Amino acid sequence: MINSYKQLGTKYLKGNMKRTILTLVGIVLSVALISTIGLYAKGSQLSQIENTKKLSGVSFHVGISDYDEEILNKIRFNPQIESFGLMSEGDIFPLGEVSVQMNFADHQALNFLTYSLLDGKLPSNDHEAAVDSWILPYIKKDLQIGDSFELDGKTYQLVGLLNNNDSTQKGKNGRLLTYKSKFAIGEGRILIEINEKADFNEVLDELKSITEDDNIAINNDLILVLKPESNQALLTILVIVVSIVVIATIIVIYNAFQISVVERMKQFGLLRSIGATRKQIRQIVMKEAAVLAFIAIPIGIVCSLLALGILQTIFLILLEDSSNVPLFNIDWQILLISSILTLIAVLVSSYYPAFFAGRISPLLAISSRLSINKGKIKNQNNKVLRKPFSFPLSMALKNVKRNKNRYTVTVLSIIISSVLFITFSSLMDIAFSSRLVNDPYESDLTINLHDENNVSSENLEVLEQIKLIKNVSEVSEQDLSFEIELKDTNQSLATVEDIQNTIGKNHSIVVINNFEAKKDQKESVLIIKVLVYAFIVVISLIGSLNILNTITISIMVRRKELAALKSIGMSQKDLKKMITYEALIYGFSGSLQGIFFGCILSYIITYNATSGFLKAEWSIPYIACFITFVAALIISYLSVLLPLRRIRQDNIINTIREE
Predict the structure, then answer these.
(1) How far apart are CA 33 and CA 536, in angstroms?
(2) CA-wise closest residue to 275 among 10, 1, 5, 12
């Protein structure tokens, strides 16, 4: 029993479950897309932060050398600085052909250097040390973590191994890191971590003002990923993408409610005739929108979390250490903003249909005269369309022209989906054009020759000796260097030691172990590819469902009209052709316009990326455009199959009598 006119909206939703479900799907897809973009961006940022720290080996933001007590106190008492530590370089001790550089750090500085650690731990006192893994054979034969060794008359316990560094290997100068509690004023440099909530630009300007430019080193790569909002190019791209999604949400939901209102004009006219006010009619429609939003938003958020959870599982399978890829990060602030944006989009998109419903004249609505549009009758001179086989096409074209509002909304839905796909395809191309993806390390080990005399004979001799090393898989010669692939990369340290013991005794060589750097870089490239491809898949899926949903709704609301055509003699075959032609017209027109606007938007994004954090040149995305065009036609065709099955089963008389 209905006790209030407000319950009419809920009753209508329950009585038209298929329509309600289709509308819910549209809202769920919208909130899922918005929240996925937010959570994806946050997770990607956290992943990039960890990646940048790992590749650089440090996590501090600023380093200041040649400081005095005044500078140290300004840093110590600055509320915008989270923490700071002290680190200095000591003496260099020769170890045969190579040398080792002493490095000292206090506890906080050691925390900044945890990303340099390959294995073990960092030293916690001045009797413990961590060294470059490649220098182990020079310090002591068969030296392992936990063993003790002596250097310059002092005994250290090896507690950790540092990542191999190209510059230290090429310079034959390894690193030894140990703890130091007290530093003299001006000794070494100050490593600074800025509070993440602080204004980085303001803090950096302040730090620059208290020292000379030559004395300050800024970790720009880390700051860029920590504070992406400081990058105007990236911010512009994010705003454009989110705006497209919000517009798509409004269009999809507006379409659903506008169709719903037009379908119920007679009902609203009856309500007006028995005393319902315009405000009450508007409230009925707005309540329907609110109910659908409150049901769909939680479902959309759950779908978004499931998508990210699946993506995190993929990383767990593909990566050895997936803990550095914190993609599944539930940020309640992002979820709240996504929910509010979707709710606003739903209410905004349903307002005009509600306003239209409130203005319906009772007499015109009851007499169904609102659906009659006056127009001039034009003679059809197209001889092709007069042929019998083209009759369904002629009807399809007339139907498209007859209802411009439905055509516009449906085509807009396809345009938005096409623009989203082309835009993110362009972002994918930009990501894959970066130096990180295109310039990976090519070999596990590199051997550089220092003696340029007798180059050809020496190269041949060294090449033959390298091939005899049991763990060597492939060797390629490049002037004064050899690129080596290993059979078992886990034995890279032992292989380096074998090379030093066999070849290094007779030739002046430098062995560079690229294995760890290559591994890290491969993981970074894999992360970029998985993230980009996964998001393209999500965008494609949501865009496809968006098109399916829009065209399906637009056909389902015309059941009475289609039943009338069948009642006057139109065959099921011609009806199917007519509807299929309509869908293909939508797909053809929408995809072409989507390709046009998508190319413009991809150019804008590429231009911003070129002027910002990446270097990329824009070119017409032919492949993405072709995929968009073909996919739009296929999806448009598939979207008519389900409604056609329903229409085929309809009883003509009962359908025409439906109110």
Answers:
(1) 12
(2) 5
Higher local confidence (pLDDT), 325 or 433:
433
- The DSSP string of 399-448 is HHHH-HHHHHHHHHHHHHHHHHHHHHHHHHHHHHTSHHHHS----SEEEE
423 — pLDDT class (breaks 50, 70, 90): confident
Phi/psi at 412 (nearest 5 deg)? -60, -40
- Which residues share a beta bridge with 83? 193
Residue linked to tokens 């979820």: 335
Measured CA to CA, the distance from residue 26 to residue 252 in angstroms comes to 6
Residues forming beta bridges with residue 81, ordered by sequence position: 194
Q: How many residues does the chain have?
A: 659
Supply the pLDDT for residue 623. 85
- Integer CA distances (angstroms), 395 to 175, 398, 550, 565, 576, in order: 80, 5, 21, 11, 12
For residue 614, how many C-alpha atoms fall within 13 Å in the half-sphere facing its CB? 23
Residue 560 has pLDDT above 70, yes or no: yes
* DSSP 8-state code for residue 382: -
The per-residue pLDDT for range 347-391, each reduced to its tens digit, is 887 777 777 777 766 666 555 554 445 445 455 555 544 454 577
Distance of CA 447 to the CA centre of its chain: 39
The CA distance from 477 to 421, in Å, is 44
| Inter-residue contact 87 to 105 (CB < 8 Å) | yes
- Three-class SS state of 468: helix
Single-letter code of the amino acid located at 307: A
pLDDT for the residue numbered 372: 45
CA distance 114 to 160: 10
Nearest to 504 by CA among 95, 164, 158, 130: 95
Distance (Å, rounded) from C-alpha 296 to C-alpha 21? Answer: 10
Nearest CA-CA partner of 181 in 127, 132, 217, 130: 127
Tell me how far apart the alpha carbons of residues 292 and 297 are, in angstroms, rounded to a whole number: 8
Both structure tokens of 323? 């803990």
DSSP 395: H
Measured N-to-C along each axis, helices 515-556 and 278-318 cross at an angle, to the nearest 10 degrees, of 150
Q: How far apart are CA 460 and CA 469, in angstroms?
A: 15
- pLDDT tens digit sequence for 148-207: 988 878 899 999 988 877 777 777 788 999 999 888 888 889 999 998 888 888 888 889
The angle that helices 622-638 and 515-556 make with each other, rounded to 10 degrees, is: 40
Structure tokens, 591 = 């995809």
Average pLDDT for 498-509: 68
Predicted structure pTM score = 0.65
List for the chain the helix, strand, coil content (%; round to 5).
65, 15, 20
End-to-end CA distance of the chain: 20
List the one residue out of 209, 555, 266 whose CA is nearest residue 410: 555
- Mind giving me the DSSP string for 142-168? T--TT-EEEETTEEEEEEEEEPP-HHH
Place of tokens 């507690």: 159
Using only the alpha carbons of the chain, give its radius of gyration: 34
